[in-house]
Automatic annotation (TrEMBL):
Belongs to the polysaccharide synthase family. InterPro entries: NAD(P)-bd_dom_sf, Polysac_CapD-like, Polysaccharide_Synthase-Rel, SAM-dependent_MTases_sf. This is Polysaccharide biosynthesis protein. Residues 281-562 form the Polysaccharide biosynthesis protein CapD-like domain. The chain crosses the membrane at residues 7-30, 42-64, 76-95, 101-124. It holds the Pfam family CoA_binding_3. Keywords: Membrane, Transmembrane, Transmembrane helix.
Length: 607
């Protein structure tokens, strides 16, 4: 019903209720004198004042503007105010008139007035809740968490016709809420009871509605929920729902990232702002998974200019368009197509833009591919890094951050060895340069183009099997946004020459990751299957972030350590680098791995 139709109808209904209330109030007290009501000027005058006052206060408190299908305690308070002030006006009219106040009549009138106005409004909500919202075709839903977030989700689901979910029960670990009813839904048990509740109430969907929940707790709840056949969803942040940024219809599926058991770290915003705001920042490999996310995170701090440097034009085009959509009016965004192996071009770029900070994310990272193409790994990861780093030194860059890898620790493969060489290049430069050179090591990032997640998803979509190299293989994982934020934070901690190591948490079995992804995709492991293919060339069973000589447990910032990795001498290192591309492939591999593992003595026989 439109506003123009609804207001006259409500005014007519309220008018009948007001007059009925004062008449019945008089009759209740004077059952044998009903005709006296019409001859009493005081009561007739009071009725008119009460009627007019009610409509005045109804407009003042916007009683006619409410959507009563969503009525709650707030609307009841508004009704109480409107009715009470109306009665007070009628009382004042009786005092100002004949001076006789029908106090008992007014009290009964107030009660009837409250009851009838309340019933007339809340009856519509009750009708919708009981007979409309629980209609057929909606999926029966269990809400985990009966706090403010869970009840908000329940209320919005009950009142949102566009959502195909209907809440039927809560579970909560707070024993004080057990068997309590909220919005007509019962708290049926605790989180451990989810399998029984799902079976009893024929639940089809489960919503985790605890915004303050930790990743560890999400994993515990997911493990319990996964024993059922119900689909598992998680709510957005309660602040986003209540402020209207997102709707309950935007409930998302639980992702692998939610099951890592890693908690977000609070960044030192002031130090990051101080180093980035108003500065010129250059990001190499800006179109890649890590590079593009670093660009997104940097733009939040509003640098004066950001230079997006990459070799692939399509990936640079994508991140350029994305950033321009949000920041074009406040940040000078410069896309640059260049190959870090082209020394002349890199020096030209550094001279032209004079960046204050450089994040060097460009690299070849795929272990088996680099094992088969070691010269390309050397040219890109070693020579490319040297080009960018020496250009930064030449043109006075303040801070240079190398994105390294856990594979640089005790590497048995070419990729890891070249990343360790890259670390040693910037460590040597740090000893004599005014530029603060640092490296940041971390493990695998979920969702990056080179990670196992996209591969597993494609294999699941194709019906399986999912290929895993070995049932016991483990890797460290973190999300792309977390890795990028910690890289930026590490840059603010740079004093020169450090190898920062990000705390990757506990290592994760690749086979467990595959099983979780299969389950999250709505299948069972038996349906998709897991095939073990064996270790590929250059792969390690277990990854490390520091070797025994580098371990330094103290954190310089939450989740950031400093390793004690010592570089090879500058002259010896650069002499060796110049010889690499003239060697045979096998000699090159051997030298790379020996040097990266600090086995200097073994080099003598190769000279």
């Amino acid at each position: 019903m439109t506003y123009q139709k609804r207001v006259p109808l409500l005014m007519l209904l309220d008018s009948i209720i007001v007059l009925f209330s004062i008449y019945v109030g008089f009759i209740i007290l004077n059952p044998d004198a009903s005709s006296d009501f019409y001859t009493s000027r005081t009561l007739l005058f009071s009725g008119i004042v009460l009627l007019v006052s009610h409509h005045v206060f109804a407009f003042i408190f916007r009683l006619y503007h409410k959507a009563w299908e969503y009525a709650s305690v707030g609307e009841m308070v508004i009704i109480a105010k409107s009715v009470t002030f109306s009665i007070l006006m009628a009382t004042a009219a009786q005092i100002a008139g004949p001076g006789y106040v029908y106090i008992r009549v007014l009290i009964i009138t107030w009660m009837l007035h409250m009851i009838l106005i309340g019933m007339s409004r809340f009856s519509w909500r009750i009708y919708r809740d009981r007979f409309i919202k629980t209609g057929n075709g909606k999926r029966r839903t269990l809400i985990v968490g009966a706090g403010s977030a869970g009840t908000t989700v329940a209320r919005q689901l009950l009142h949102n016709n566009d959502v195909d979910l209907v809440p039927v029960a809560f579970v909560d670990d707070d024993s004080r809420k057990y068997k309590l009813d909220m919005y007509g839904l019962t708290v049926c048990g605790n989180i451990a009871d989810i399998p029984q509740v799902v079976k009893k109430y024929k639940i089809q969907d489960i919503i985790i509605a605890i915004p303050s929940i930790t990743k560890t707790e999400i994993r515990r709840i997911y493990d319990i929920c996964s024993k059922t056949e119900a689909k598992i969803k998680i709510m957005p942040m309660i602040e986003d729902i209540m402020t209207g940024k997102v709707q309950v219809s935007e409930l998302r599926n639980v992702e692998v990232e939610d099951l890592l058991g890693r908690e977000c770290v609070e960044l030192d915003i002031s130090s990051i702002s101080e180093s980035i705001s108003g500065a010129t920042v250059l990001v190499t490999g800006a179109g890649g998974s890590i590079g593009s996310e670093i660009c997104r995170q940097i733009c939040v701090f509003q640098p004066r200019r950001i230079i997006l440097l990459g070799h692939g034009e399509f990936s640079i085009y994508n991140i350029d368009m994305e950033l321009r959509k949000k920041y074009q009016d406040i940040i000078d965004i410069v896309p640059v197509i260049a190959d870090i192996q082209d020394r002349t071009r890199i020096f030209e770029i550094m001279e032209e833009y004079s960046p204050d900070v450089v994040y060097h994310a460009a690299a070849h990272k795929h272990v088996p591919l680099m094992e088969g193409n070691p010269r390309e790994a050397v040219k890109n990861n070693i020579f490319g890094t040297r080009n960018v780093a020496e250009a930064a030194d030449t043109f006075g860059v303040k801070t240079f951050v190398l994105i390294s890898s856990d594979k640089a620790v005790n590497p048995p493969n070419v990729m890891g060895a070249t990343k360790r060489f890259a670390e040693m290049i910037i460590q040597n430069l740090a000893k004599e340069s005014n530029t603060k050179f640092v490296a940041v090591r971390f493990g695998n990032v979920l969702g990056s183009r080179g990670s196992v997640i996209p591969l597993f998803k494609k294999q699941i979509e194709a019906g399986g099997p999912v290929t895993v190299t070995h049932p016991d293989m483990t890797r460290y994982f973190m999300t792309i946004p977390e890795a990028s934020r910690l890289v930026i934070q590490a840059g603010t901690l740079a004093r020169g020459g450090e190898v920062f190591v990000l705390d990757m948490g506990d290592p994760v079995k690749i086979s467990d990751l595959a099983k979780n992804l299969i389950t999250l995709s709505g299948f069972t492991v038996d349906e998709i299957g897991i095939k073990y293919s064996g270790l590929r060339p250059g792969e390690k069973m277990f990854e490390e972030l520091l070797n025994d000589d580098e371990i330094q447990k103290k954190q310089v910032f939450p989740k950031i350590h400093i390793g004690k990795a010592e570089p090879m001498g500058k002259q010896e290192l650069h002499s060796l680098i110049e010889r690499l591309l003239t060697m045979t492939v096998e000699d090159m591999k051997n030298i790379l791995i020996q040097v990266a593992n600090n086995k200097y003595k073994q080099l003598e026989s190769t000279k």
